[in-house]
Amino acid sequence: MSRSRGRSFPRILRRLLLLGLALLIAPYLLILLYTPAFVHPVSTLMAGDLVMLNGYDRRWVSLEEISPNLVQSVMMSEDGQFCRHGGVDWGEMKAVVQEALEGENTRGASTIPMQTAKNLFLWNGRSFVRKGLELPLAMVADFVWPKRRMMEIYLNVAEWGPGIYGAEAAAQHHFGVSAADLTRRQAALLAVSLPNPITRVASKPGRGMQRIAGVVERRARGSGEYITCIYG
Predict the structure, then answer these.
(1) Per-residue confidence band for 68, with pLDDT thresholds at 50, 70 and 90
(2) What's the whole-model pTM score?
(3) CA dist 90 → 20, 77, 84, 109, 197 (Å)
């Protein structure tokens, strides 16, 4: 009996290691699978909603069917260097690490590729483990996908409320319009709600959210040189 147990433990350990390796490799294979425009990826949050039988609202639309107002607002709010970096804004990341070492409260340094990788393959919540997995995924995705494809996927998997995913469902839910018809202010409100769409409700903005949306709206108006990889 003891010999049988002794032989089974290495076998179980080997299977666990193989399973862990498969889980690490799978996202990189999915990045390749998600490259064609006809593939419509789902996020881990959407998958979780399905598992919990909650359902969700996501209506995939191409980037051409999304108002440039939203693209500009999201870039100016979330990742102003989107067209210039390779998935990770190392300058911003270095500043955040320095702040952490000095004991200061750190700001977010996530780029759109990093957020897309998190949404598709990882989980919410801050941890060094998640960030360590997120960085290489973001760089590989940015290398494999054209910038337009990256933005298209991000805007179709981003969460904009409980069970509300993607620009089209968000525009319909919050403003009763299609993603193609979002105004500059509506787009700015959706953009500033992204960090926490559960407490920041785009259709019910408070005074502070309105103020931030005004800043994003002004930046979006002057974003021409920053969006050349999308509308070059």
Answers:
(1) very high
(2) 0.91
(3) 28, 18, 11, 9, 26
